[in-house]
Structures are given as C-alpha cells and as structure tokens.
Write a structure and sequence with these properties.
about 250 residues; alpha/beta; 10 helices; about 15% strand; globular
Length: about 250
C-alpha cells in the first residue's frame, strides 16, 4: 500500500463509530474500503479504475452507495464540525460545479442540475468558519440564486455567531434584517445601484478570501469539481467526505 493513499489508524478511530457493524467475517475491512473511496473521489476515477490494493472495485462502489444512503458521510461531517466548536464569524458564498454527461438525466427524481451560460451545472452553497473550514453545505441547480441558498444556510445560525461575511450577491434588505434581528452584523458590501448604501467593515470583508480558498481545496478533488454522480445524495456524500478529510481529519 506504499504507492496509494491509506487513512491512518488514528483517523479511522475518530470516525469508526459512524459505520454499520460488521456481520460478515471475511470481507475487506472498512479502513481500506474508505481509503479506496477517498482515492477515487480525489483523483476523479471511474470505480473500475481503483487500485486493486483497495479490494474489488465493486466492493468500493457498493459500500459507498450503501453508506451514502445510510447517511454515514453526512453524519461524519456534522460530527467533525460540532467537535471543532462554533465560530463567532461565518462566511457565505456559492460556486458552480460542472456536471459530467452521465448525471444529466432527469428521470425519477430531481438531481439539482440545470443549464447555465457555462453549460450544465450544480451550485454548491456553503458557509465556512473564521479559519476557512466548511460548516454547512446546500446543493441546488446551477441557475438558483444565492438568496435561496442563503435562506437555507442562514436560517438557524448558532447563538455564538457575531458576524456574517458575504459578497454583493447577498445584499438584500431581507438578509440584512434577518441577521440584525439576531444581533448578527452583516459584513456585505452594497450593490452599486443602491441609493442608500449600508456601511460595512471593509477590513473584515478581506477575510472573504477564506471561503474562496476552501472552494479551491474542495475542487482539487476531481469528483467534486466535476460532478459524476447521478444521485444528489451520493454527490453530497462525496462532498462531505472530501471536506472531512481535507479540513477535519488532518494528522
């Protein structure tokens, strides 16, 4: 296993309790399977191209789908953010994720993929803390406005929150009023067409680069930057496990 990625024992111990109990003795262990899943997502591979050191590629795929449906990756991400503690400063933004051809079918259920001027996209809305670690995600179709993402992400912020930083895309009286009612300062520059321009702390606004850096690190994982997964829940599982490994499960 020297030539491929393998999660350490200490990393695995921190998340082992989120996986289902083992009922079959002879099977590839969860550490190797999860490492294989991470390898595939990070390098943008088809499942059949996963290194054989991780075990059969069908095992990797089947467990990824099973764990995704059980919400394992979602719970891992939420648990890591809770252990990190609440941040007084939050930053909100959104980015487009290009959809690969296979997920573009609309049959069966909504996949949150729509056409924009750049082609078929999904849109990932996110909030990160004051040091640039993601704390919340919300996936929509590519043409959905930032406001609708903000309605979900800013609905129930922790009591410790003091500041929310966002770009001009979040400049609306509704968002500002909603934050003010909770005694949260909105550090959002006003749109250029506003007649009365609310003040904002431009020194604090410089911290917005942290969420841009966060998106850049997530997009280093090829199956996040380019959406290969048909199902929304499997794509969000890929995002959650990528965010957990990059920002919270570091050695």
């Amino acid at each position: 296993m020297n030539d491929v990625f393998l999660l350490s024992e200490s990393q695995m111990e921190r998340i082992r309790l989120f996986f289902p109990l083992v009922h079959v003795m002879l099977r590839v262990d969860d550490r190797h399977v999860l490492s294989g899943i991470v390898y595939v997502i990070r390098n943008g591979l088809q499942w059949k191209d996963a290194p054989k050191a991780y075990g059969p590629h069908k095992t990797l795929y089947n467990r990824f789908i099973r764990w995704s449906r059980l919400g394992v990756f979602d719970r891992i991400f939420v648990a890591q953010t809770e252990q990190a503690g609440c941040s007084k400063r939050l930053i909100i933004d959104a980015t487009h994720l290009k959809a690969h051809r296979p997920p573009c079918s609309k049959r069966g259920f909504p996949r949150h993929i729509e056409r924009t001027k750049d082609g078929l996209n999904s849109k990932l809305h996110a909030v990160c803390d004051g040091v640039g670690r993601p704390v919340r995600f919300h996936l929509t179709a590519g043409q959905v406005s930032d406001f609708r993402g903000a309605d979900v992400l800013l609905a129930d912020l922790p009591d410790e929150t003091e500041d929310v930083i966002g770009d001009r895309g979040y400049d609306s009286n509704r968002i500002r009023l909603s934050l003010a009612e909770r005694n949260i300062t909105a550090c959002i520059p006003p749109k250029k067409n506003r007649k009365l321009k609310p003040p904002y702390n431009w020194h604090l606004y410089k911290k917005r680069h942290l969420i841009e850096n966060m998106f850049a690190k997530l997009k280093d994982w090829r199956r996040v930057a380019t959406r290969y997964d048909r199902g929304t829940h499997t794509f969000m599982s890929a995002i959650h496990i990528a965010a957990s490994v990059i920002f919270y499960l570091k050695e």
